[in-house]
Write a structure and sequence with these properties.
This protein is an alpha/beta fold. It has helices at 17-31, 59-79, 94-104, 126-134; strands at residues 6-10, 34-42, 87-92, 109-113, 138-142. The longest helix is centred in the middle third of the chain and has 21 residues, at 59-79. The protein binds adenosine monophosphate.
């Protein structure tokens, strides 16, 4: 039976993040697979003019967000012993970026939480739903239970 060789875990730094990374790490050990990690800094609403407000492009804020995210991701990757060339920090739509990075790096399994920041009201969160929809590889949605 073919096993997974290249696993990508998607993290949003929300509470359940540890449970998701723990499962991804365990799977990478089981399959002796390479483990990569991704975080996507979401598109900022301040750049969205659909509210009728023309907000200035705030480069300082974006740089600060990216720097903070980079540090958090690097700390988590170090904890999981993931080498730096397998750490992806992207900006844009989380579902699109996760799918793109997975395809470009021949990932064969994406590990994602069933829910994250976007609430527990739905059966699946919007990111998980989008990734399941568009990814060409297998996707494991780690069930996040309502407390
Ligand atoms: P959501 O669908 O947004 O409720 O989140 C479900 C899961 O998608 C989370 O548990 C993460 O695994 C992943 N995810 C959500 N947002 C991001 C993000 N910005 N970057 C990377 N992964 C994310």
């Amino acid at each position: 039976m073919e096993t997974y060789q290249n696993i990508l875990v998607a993290v949003d730094f929300y509470e359940q993040c540890e449970e998701i990374t723990h499962k991804a790490l365990a799977l990478s050990h089981t399959y002796k697979a390479k483990l990569s990690i991704i975080h996507v800094v979401d598109n900022l609403p301040i750049l969205d003019s659909s509210y009728g407000v023309e907000a200035p492009f705030n480069m300082d804020l974006i740089t600060e967000l990216m720097d903070n995210a980079k540090k958090k991701l690097a700390d988590l990757a170090e904890k999981l012993q993931i080498p730096t060339d397998q750490v992806f920090l992207e900006m844009g739509s989380p579902k699109s970026e996760i799918v793109r990075v997975a395809e470009e790096n021949a990932v064969d399994l994406i590990v994602i939480g069933s829910h994250g920041r976007h609430g527990l009201a739905l059966l699946l969160g919007s990111t998980a739903n989008g990734v399941l929809h568009y990814a060409k590889c297998d996707v494991l949605a780690v069930r996040i239970k309502d407390e």
